């Protein structure tokens, strides 16, 4: 695992905000924010079932959103991800097969709507200025690395700064706003990803029904990223659709299926045990918990739902003795090699042979600035 150890990198990751001068001196500066991919280290997918998770924000991939003051409010399409001009019918069809029908414009529109509604409902006054929102991303699609929520998270940060209301929207509430925007679009997800991207770093999350009912959100505890062992990210060039994996299991859970309910509680407990293992730096225990997390998911969802390619990624890692599990709902895997560099080399060779991409995980430090931290302290 690589850490950004230069002071300038720390500052960049902590706020990821850039100010750019406009063409005239009187023009307000542009605002730019990044949000990073996240890895569900333990406990997923129990966040959707009043469970617990441990997640880490990673610098390997990110989405960025730029807000520039303008006369009209404009949501700018991305030249690649929101493509509407093609060389031929075949080009259009290939694009839809690989990228789907949706780009990021709908995500930007949705968070603007949700943000406006939240401010109105909570008596937060917004000035009348307009802006142009544009985005970019290098997070691979359908890899379970939270690409959609990264765009929404970065856009929310831009809106908070443009309207100067960051101090009025509590950090704990922001993941709910991001998730609400995605729900507007029918995206199936839980709070885990959004919490990881808002907070950054390593976070333990408790989504117990008591917390959700009483607070409206979970209990989120940042942890020292130095507690993490070296991790590796494995993903496929042509991943599965992570948005469809939860469907049947969730219905069974709602219907009171005893096996699903007990198994999901067991998954949630893995995060609790994993937090203890990290605090004690008991990495042998962490490895066992990661493998068990995947085993429980496999039993609940079944191999057809998980997909052969996703299962193969996990098994390739486990065949060389590495611990492994999905980063999210499929498309990418997080692996831990407890035996060190020699085992990492075996993992790299095995992944190359199988046609998978493997790279060391780069951990993002906490993303909370002084204003954010003050909202955490105020009750």
UniProtKB/TrEMBL annotation:
Residues 276-352 form the GHMP kinase C-terminal domain. The keyword Protein biosynthesis does not apply. Residues 1-23 have a biased composition (Basic and acidic residues). It holds the Pfam family GHMP_kinases_N. Gene3D superfamilies: 3.30.230.120. Its EC number is 2.7.1.43. Belongs to the GHMP kinase family. PANTHER family: WITH PUTATIVE URIDYL PYROPHOSPHORYLASE-RELATED. This is glucuronokinase.
């Amino acid at each position: 695992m690589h850490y950004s150890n230069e002071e300038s990198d720390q500052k960049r990751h902590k706020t990821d905000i850039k100010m750019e001068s406009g063409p005239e001196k009187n023009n307000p500066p542009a605002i730019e924010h990044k949000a990073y991919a996240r890895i569900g280290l333990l406990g997923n997918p129990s966040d959707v079932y009043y469970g617990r998770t441990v997640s880490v924000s990673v610098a390997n991939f990110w989405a960025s959103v730029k807000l520039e003051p303008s006369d009209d409010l404009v949501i700018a399409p991305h030249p690649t991800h929101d493509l509407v001009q093609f060389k031929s019918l075949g080009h259009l069809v290939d694009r839809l097969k690989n990228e789907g029908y949706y780009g990021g414009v709908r995500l930007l529109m949705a968070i603007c709507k949700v943000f406006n509604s939240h401010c109105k409902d909570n008596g937060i006054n917004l000035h009348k200025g307009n802006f142009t929102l544009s985005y970019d991303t290098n997070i691979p699609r359908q890899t379970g690395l939270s690409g959609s929520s990264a765009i929404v998270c970065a856009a929310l940060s831009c809106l908070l700064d443009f309207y100067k209301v960051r101090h009025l929207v509590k950090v704990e509430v922001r993941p709910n706003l991001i998730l609400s925007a995605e729900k507007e679009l029918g995206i199936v997800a839980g709070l885990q990803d959004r919490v990881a991207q808002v907070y950054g770093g390593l976070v333990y999350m408790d989504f117990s029904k008591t917390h959700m009912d009483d607070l409206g959100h979970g209990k989120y505890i940042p942890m020292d990223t130095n507690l993490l062992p070296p991790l590796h990210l494995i993903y496929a060039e042509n991943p599965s659709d992570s948005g469809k994996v939860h469907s049947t299991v969730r219905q069974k859970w709602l219907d009171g299926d005893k096996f699903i309910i007990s198994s999901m509680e067991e998954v949630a407990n893995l995060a609790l045990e994993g937090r203890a293992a990290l605090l004690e730096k008991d990495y042998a225990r962490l490895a066992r918990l990661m493998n068990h997390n995947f085993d429980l998911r496999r039993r609940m969802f079944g191999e057809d739902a998980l997909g052969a390619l996703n299962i193969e990624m996990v098994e390739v890692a486990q065949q060389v003795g590495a611990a492994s599990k999905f980063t999210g709902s499929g498309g990418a895997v997080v692996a831990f090699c407890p035996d060190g560099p020699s085992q990492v080399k075996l993992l790299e060779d095995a992944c190359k042979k199988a046609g998978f991409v493997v790279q060391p995980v780069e951990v993002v430090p906490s993303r909370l600035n002084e204003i954010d931290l003050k909202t955490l302290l105020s009750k």
